[in-house]
Write a structure and sequence with these properties.
The protein is mainly α. It has 7 helices and no strands.
Length: 140
């Protein structure tokens, strides 16, 4: 049996929830977008349904601005497996050791340089204020 022959166990309501959450929408906001017949409770019930009716799926997909196929076919486990198969050499190699990118400078040195520059700016500002005070004393 080919792996494409195995029926996928995809929960369309859960996929609606995932897409809604990725978009930062609350159930109430989705209900408002779907129209007057909708409520937070009805969205909750929709998200618990394993399979959505085609018209409802179309309506929800349109509001979420995602393709209907995304809601019908998104499989979280397949997505996780897909991303876990990447081998990014900046983080690991075939024997599993970690390779980090190293800084060409010491961040603490840079931080100290900024502090020193701030001190110099403060001293110049202070000197300028002293000069202003002297000028005002001489005028008075």
């Amino acid at each position: 049996m080919n792996t494409t022959d195995i029926p996928k166990n995809i929960h369309q309501g859960r996929n609606v929830k995932r897409f809604r959450e990725m978009l930062g929408l609350k159930q109430e906001a989705l209900a408002i977008e779907l129209g007057d017949d909708w409520s937070q409770k009805r969205i909750s019930l929709l998200e618990s349904k394993e399979v959505l009716e085609p018209e409802l799926l179309s309506q929800v997909a349109k509001v979420l601005k995602v393709p209907e196929e995304a809601i019908k076919n998104f499989d979280e486990q397949a997505a996780v497996t897909y991303f876990n198969t990447f081998n990014d050499n900046s983080f690991s190699n075939s024997n599993g050791t970690f390779h980090a990118n190293y800084c060409t400078f010491n961040p603490i040195d840079k931080w100290l340089e900024v502090i020193e520059e701030n001190k110099k700016l403060y001293e110049r500002l202070l000197q300028s204020e002293r000069e202003k005070v002297e000028i005002l004393k001489n005028k008075g």
